Amino acid sequence: MQELSNQLQEILDKDFIRPSYSPWGAPVLFVKKKDGSFRMCIDYRELNKLTIKNRYPLPRIDDLFDQLQGAQYFSKIDLRSGYHQLRVQDEDIPKMAFRTRYGHYEFMVMPFGLTNAPAVFMDLMNRVCKPYLDQFVIVFIDDILVYSKNKTEHEQHLRKILELLREKKLYAKFSKCEFWLREVKFLGHVVNSEGIHVDPAKIEAIKNWDTPKTPTEIRSFLGLAGYYRRFISNFSKIALPLTKLTQKSEPFVWEQKQEDAFQTLKQKLCNAPILSLPEGCDDFVVYCDASHQGLGCVLMQRDKVIAYASRQLKVHERNYTTHDLELGAVIFALKIWRHYLYGTKDNKLRNLWV
């Protein structure tokens, strides 16, 4: 209760909230942050059900990392309570109301928990940083990554971004910013001049993951593991015994094949390879494989692995002949990596069965 009282007083003093007489009122909850402190959040699920969804596209993680090819220096800027730097329109303020034992309040700035908050903030940051996007800055919601090929460029790039943030009155949290790095943690990955690695903190979490006891726990594990599937050859094939247990029609019986799949995924994630960043648009080679357990492929460039991809077979595909499955693997690879392969020369598709 003391934490709630302190945080309410803090955001009242900052004029983020005000006393409310709104007929609405969402409950309060707390979320633990990385540093061990707690963030007060509002449970806006009922409001979100009635909200018209903003379809503003969030960028693909793979596309963001592809921009970092050749970068040697990095700086990461984290905005201070980024959402709270956006004002809510006057007519919408009553909808932001929440109730506590200390009173009824409403946010005048954008709170955490709104379904459209990430899209709205992403739109703002893209408009603010538009002059420098795809040149030396990556933006993902409230995280800003500045990257450069040498020290001189990095000094210039940093100055431009910091001046831009000051001009637009967007404020960073200095304790969470990192400057002049040769290796940076970003979006659950570690990036340096060698390529992309899995974040060691995530590896530790996977290593210590207990055997799932319910379908929900399996989904939770596969959710984290699936985020790094580009690092694992034949991920879908390995995960198939686990995926089956998440289906409602399947009784939850943990057998040796599930244990083997679980341990194999943990082992492969804990020993994940370094993936290279693409260099230019040429010399890509795609290797495809197919079986009645799934489709798999690997994208390579000049003998370096760029990414792995795989998927399980759909119900009707289980009746396909071998050569149809092989063709399906080729089509699958072309679809997911078309932005690397279409319109370029000297790229090759090879089937592992040949």
Automatic annotation (TrEMBL):
PROSITE patterns: RT_POL. It comes from the Eukaryota. Residues 12-191 form the Reverse transcriptase domain. Gene3D superfamilies: 3.30.70.270, HIV Type 1 Reverse Transcriptase, subunit A, domain 1. Keywords: Multifunctional enzyme. One of its GO terms (molecular function) is catalytic activity. InterPro entries: DNA/RNA_pol_sf, Retrovirus_Pol_polyprotein, Rev_trsase/Diguanyl_cyclase, RT_dom, RT_RNaseH_2. This is Reverse transcriptase domain-containing protein.
